[in-house]
Design a protein that fits this description.
The structure holds two protein chains of two kinds.
Chain A lengths: L13 H12 L7 H16 L5 H19 L7 H23 L8 H11 L4 H18 L2 H10 L4 H15 L3 H25 L1
Helix pairs in contact in A: 1-2, 1-3, 2-3, 2-4, 3-4, 6-9, 7-9, 8-9
Chain B lengths: L7 H8 L5 H13 L1 H19 L5 H9 L5 H46 L6 H39 L68 E6 L10 E6 L4 E7 L7 E8 L5 E4 L6 E2 L4 E8 L7 E9 L5 E14 L4
Parallel strand pairs in B: 1-3, 2-9
Antiparallel strand pairs in B: 3-7, 4-5, 4-8, 6-7, 8-9
Helix pairs in contact in B: 1-3, 2-3, 3-5
The chains are: A mainly alpha, B alpha+beta.
Chain lengths: 203, 347
């Protein structure tokens, strides 16, 4: 059977987006959580590949998956995680080919782009940003539950041996393994960092 | 989740771009298809960044971190956030230490001033130290005397107790049977006639209750009372895996009256919980529990629920667990999806 032709200028319609969410969810409605997690995995993947715009590439990947779903009706050959990974690899290879063709050195960039690039790397606002981040950390930590606040402050405190001993004691106290503790602490930290990220952008 | 099945060293090498292309692709894929790996990757990355921030990296690893890891804006931002977090945590700790120090010194001063008003010579530290040493020596002396003087008496008493004959049990005497209290009484009563088929899914394994160890003897004068027929299927649901959409399968015989489920909690942050049974096909709430408390078990804290088996058909359901704040407000904390298959026990 001949496969339907891929439409290059296809736009993600609300219906296609709903289908994508449903496909990522499987049988349980996650209220968009699965989509956000998959997008985050894609952003991290492209970032680990040192791509310049991981967000755009993650969106492009999900756009292609949505298009495939629209054309085929369903994707049953792979799990959502694996299918997204396969698609992301294609997007990455295309990205590599395009950057080979279009990459320019900083000297060859137009002046306004040079300024933009340099501005993003300057440290003029660094001090202000650090202060803002500390304020946001204070604000966002208060939003955590008391035991989560305690965990963050204890788990990430100390250096080398002190830190390791401290974590062992914490895990023993909670009756869980150090590995389970580290995953728990990491999730709370992610929650905190997410809040701090939004808080910093607010002003 | 309990054991670390991936090599943290390898994950660090992956993050620093030190692995071969094949290994890198393998890890890339695992990041999408294996939630345990994704969690571990996250933990290792945070530890790596923290080590850099605290100046714990050196040599080749430090060079690699600077040249490879810090190459993208997103990762540089992660380092900046980690720096701020470290400053914040250190600041919080020094604040707590200062507070504790102030409280401790205030307490010591208060005690000292109260004490030295009775014993003015204690204000001199040298005299206080000498007095302390004398007190310790005196304590050793008293304990030694007690040990020498009282120990033989105690041994004598022990011998007397051992020599007292124990009453012999007459084999004809009817001994009132001791019935061992049923473990997990709330959830684990299963009709003896009902055979519950264990499902292959390890996450939702039915528990069979052990029978009482001693059966009570029935006297001939009293007619035997048939115990009420209670049939209950019990299941244990482990905490839902983040990002995983695996639906637990449970098989319930048609003649089961009630279903009891132990919901293991990933975090036990609330004093009270509420649960609801939701029909996943139409989103309707079929049953709701009252306020529940969590119970501590060996691995996780858990909550136990029980509802009529008539509520369930061959469908997918969801148990939604909400934590209740002191204000009375509830927050959905997790959902346990499961698929029900009803089976005919005669088959």
């Amino acid at each position: 059977m001949q496969k339907p032709e891929l439409k290059k200028n296809w736009q993600t319609t609300p219906e296609a987006f709903r289908n994508l969410l449903k496909w990522l969810d499987g049988e349980v409605d996650s209220d968009g959580q699965e989509y956000l997690e998959m997008r985050n995995k894609l952003v991290l993947y492209f970032d680990r590949k040192n791509c310049l715009s991981p967000d755009d590439l993650a969106d492009e990947t999900l756009h292609r998956v949505a298009r495939r779903l629209e054309e085929e009706g369903k994707i049953e050959s792979e799990t959502p995680g694996r299918y997204c990974y396969i698609t992301a690899r294609f997007v990455f290879m295309e990205y590599l080919r395009s950057t080979e063709k279009t990459s320019v050195s900083l000297d060859e960039m137009p002046k306004y782009l040079q300024e933009k690039y340099l501005k993003s790397n300057t440290q003029t606002n660094e001090k202000e940003l650090k202060e803002k981040r500390l304020e946001c950390l204070e604000h966002c930590t208060k939003k955590l539950k008391p035991d989560q606040q305690k965990m963050i402050l204890e788990y990430y405190f100390g250096e080398e041996k002190i830190k390791i001993d401290n974590r062992r004691k914490m895990a023993k106290k909670l009756g869980i393994t150090v590995n389970a503790l580290s995953i728990r602490a990491c999730r709370i930290r992610e929650k905190l960092e997410f809040c701090v990220g939004n808080c910093v952008k607010e002003d | 989740m309990s054991k670390n099945k991936y090599d943290n060293q390898k994950i660090t090498d992956y993050l620093l771009g030190n692995l071969s292309e094949t290994e890198t692709e393998h890890f890339d894929e695992l990041g999408f298809v294996d939630d345990d790996f994704a969690n571990q990757l996250n933990v290792v990355e945070k530890d790596l960044v923290d080590s850099y921030v605290k100046g714990e990296l050196s040599g080749e690893r430090l060079n690699r971190f600077k040249s490879y890891y810090l190459a993208t804006p997103l990762r540089r931002e992660k380092v900046e956030v980690a720096e701020s977090l470290q400053i914040f945590i250190d600041k919080k700790h020094s604040e707590v230490e200062k507070e504790e120090l102030v409280i401790a010194s205030e307490k010591t001063n208060a005690n000292l001033s109260r004490f030295s008003s009775f014993f003015p010579f204690l204000a001199n530290p040298k005299a206080a130290m000498q007095l302390g040493v004398i007190a310790i020596l005196l304590l050793f002396f008293v304990v030694g005397i007690w040990f020498i003087a009282l120990r033989p008496n105690q041994q004598l008493n022990e011998n007397i107790v051992q020599k007292t004959p124990t009453p012999q049990t007459d084999s004809n005497v009817d001994i009132t049977p001791k019935i061992t209290p049923e473990p997990m009484k709330e959830i684990a009563i299963i009709n003896e006639n009902v055979e519950i088929q264990p499902t292959p899914n390890p996450e939702s394994t039915p528990i069979k209750t052990p029978k009482p160890t001693v059966e009570p003897k029935t006297s001939p004068s009293k007619p035997t009372k048939t115990p009420p027929k209670v049939s209950l299927a019990t299941f244990v649901f482990s905490p839902p895996v983040r990002g995983g959409s695996k639906v637990k399968q449970i098989t319930i015989p048609e003649n089961i009256r009630d279903v009891a489920i132990t919901l293991q909690l990933e975090f036990d942050d609330f004093q009270n919980y509420r649960t609801a049974l939701i029909d996943q096909t139409n989103g309707k709430s079929l049953w709701q529990s009252g306020k529940l408390n969590s119970k501590k078990t060996s691995e996780n804290n858990s909550i136990n629920i029980r509802f009529s088996a008539k509520l369930l058909e061959n469908k997918i359901y969801l148990i939604r667990v909400s934590g209740i704040y002191n204000s009375g407000q509830a927050e959905v904390i997790s959902s346990y999806p499961f698929r029900v298959t009803k089976s005919n026990p005669k088959n």
